[in-house]
């Protein structure tokens, strides 16, 4: 039993837990930073690699898809090979992928390198969570889970700023070279500070489940992206969607029959859990997909360089920071609904972008969007956990990670191709601004979709609280 397991709720984190938190935070920040650091590079990549925006967006989508596809494997692999060993291996793969990205000479090579990077990045956070919880007392789980919000919220918001500074001075390759020394430092620290636990019998690996789930995710994402490219259903879109739906249907049937499925789909019989998962998916699409639009607007329509574009997107992180103290004061259902509603309202000003929209207005709106995202994403995940029994949580964790990342991948793919279609019709900055405004209608629709299931979570939570109050009132009259 580790040091952390012997602590009481009033004691500080043990030295072992503090070391684990420090080491894992390095890798987790890298993984989430790379979900958005490329956003401000899309314009530079399109010019440097002589490709259109609809093609360059696959640099982002390939990372998110590979990341989501590998997450289901992490639980089994951590048991089989040991969590600390797998964490080191994930950092090694991520760092090698970063070197390959920086050395890429073509768009196809860069997309392949980003997929490799995503495989490493997808294992870092789930395995890191396993390492943290292994060193924490049960009474400390709430604080440990709260720490997970740091890389989830702040790293993606800071990505455009860091990316803008690096690209302006050193070129787009620098955003990938940045990962190399940090990744190497993380590997060295992990080897020195984490106990290299040995693996154990993890049972039979569900290879068929992994193939079906991955094929389904990729097929649906590709099909939706092709709808945006073609402006409707064409052969490629139908083929992608058909393959994706059939693969996911096969995965569900396989999981229901399997004794040890890759992912336990029976959890979706719980209405509150399902609502939280739908909200997590839609919030991922609205947040990560929406993050690609503003840097492009600032560079394409307003003619700003990548540094200014990154700095003007940074207020999202400030908003997330402002929201942090409020997340524990109310229940997760009410908080997540409030956050999703704020996120929806804060999207409306983007529907009226022009060539002269005030930067002060944009900064204020970005802060408010950050507040909305900070109030919605973590409470939604908390609501999902609270809807389940303790023994079901290990099966729920990878599914939450998958839906958030797949939502981001699909949102990025769809919004990028919708924007490309709009920009093809624009020849002046004013017409291009209209194209961005039209694309933000899609973002608004996604945020509204995210708000609907959070309303169910808030209603369920309020009803449970009222039942508890009535029960206490009856008990007091006896």
From TrEMBL:
The keyword Transport applies. Residues 20-462 form the Major facilitator superfamily (MFS) profile domain. The keyword Signal does not apply. GO terms for molecular function: transmembrane transporter activity. InterPro entries: EmrB-like (IPR004638), MFS (IPR011701), MFS_dom (IPR020846), MFS_trans_sf (IPR036259). It comes from the Bacteria. Keywords: Cell membrane, Membrane, Transmembrane, Transmembrane helix, Transport. It is a multi-pass membrane protein. One of its GO terms (cellular component) is plasma membrane. It is found in: Cell membrane. The chain crosses the membrane at residues 21-46, 58-78, 85-105, 111-132, 144-168, 174-195, 207-225, 237-256, 276-294, 306-326, 333-353, 359-381, 402-420, 440-460. SUPFAM superfamilies: MFS general substrate transporter (SSF103473). Belongs to the major facilitator superfamily. EmrB family. This is Multidrug resistance protein B. The lineage of its organism: Bacteria, Bacillati, Actinomycetota, Actinomycetes, Micrococcales.
């Amino acid at each position: 039993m580790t040091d952390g397991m012997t602590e009481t709720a009033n004691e500080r984190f043990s030295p072992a837990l503090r070391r684990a938190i420090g080491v894992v935070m390095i890798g987790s920040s890298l993984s989430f930073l790379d979900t958005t650091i490329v956003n401000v590079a899309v314009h530079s990549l399109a010019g440097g690699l002589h490709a259109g925006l609809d093609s360059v967006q696959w640099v982002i989508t390939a990372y998110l898809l590979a990341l989501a596809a590998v997450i289901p494997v992490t639980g089994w692999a951590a048991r089989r090979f040991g969590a600390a060993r797998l964490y080191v291996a994930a950092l090694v793969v991520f760092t090698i992928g970063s070197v390959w990205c920086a050395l890429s000479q073509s768009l196809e090579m860069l997309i392949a390198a980003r997929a490799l990077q995503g495989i490493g990045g997808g294992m870092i956070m789930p395995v890191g969570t396993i390492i943290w919880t292994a060193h924490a007392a049960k009474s400390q789980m709430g604080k440990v889970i709260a720490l997970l919000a740091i890389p989830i919220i702040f790293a993606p918001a800071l990505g455009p700023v860091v990316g803008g500074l690096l690209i302006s001075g050193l070129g787009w390759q620098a955003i990938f070279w940045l990962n190399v020394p940090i990744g190497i430092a993380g590997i060295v620290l992990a080897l020195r500070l984490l106990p290299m636990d040995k693996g154990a019998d993890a049972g039979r690996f569900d290879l068929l489940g992994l193939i079906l789930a991955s094929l389904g995710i990729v097929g649906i994402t590709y099909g939706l992206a092709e709808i945006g490219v073609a402006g409707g259903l064409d052969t490629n879109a139908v083929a992608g969607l058909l393959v994706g739906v059939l693969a996911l249907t096969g995965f569900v049937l396989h999981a229901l029959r399997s004794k040890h499925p890759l992912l336990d789909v029976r959890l979706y019989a719980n209405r509150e859990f399902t609502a939280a998962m739908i909200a997590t998916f839609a919030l991922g699409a609205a947040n990560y997909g929406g993050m690609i639009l503003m840097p492009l607007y600032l560079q394409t329509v307003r003619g700003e360089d990548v540094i200014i574009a990154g700095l003007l997107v940074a207020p999202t992180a400030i908003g997330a920071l402002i929201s942090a103290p409020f997340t524990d004061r109310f229940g997760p259902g009410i908080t997540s609904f409030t956050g999703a509603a704020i996120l929806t309202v804060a999207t409306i000003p983007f529907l009226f972008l022009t060539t002269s929209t005030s930067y002060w207005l944009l900064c204020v709106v970005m802060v408010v969007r950050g507040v909305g995202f900070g109030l919605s994403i973590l409470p939604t995940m908390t609501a999902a956990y609270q809807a389940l029994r303790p023994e079901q949580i290990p099966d729920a964790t990878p599914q939450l990670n998958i839906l958030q990342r797949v939502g981001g991948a699909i949102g990025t793919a769809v919004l990028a191709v919708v924007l490309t279609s709009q920009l093809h019709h624009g020849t002046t900055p004013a017409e291009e601004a209209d194209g961005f405004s039209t694309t933000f209608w899609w973002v608004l629709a996604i945020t509204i979709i995210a708000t609907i299931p959070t309303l169910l979570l808030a209603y369920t939570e309020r009803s449970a609280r009222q039942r508890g109050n009535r029960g206490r009132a009856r008990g007091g009259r006896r």
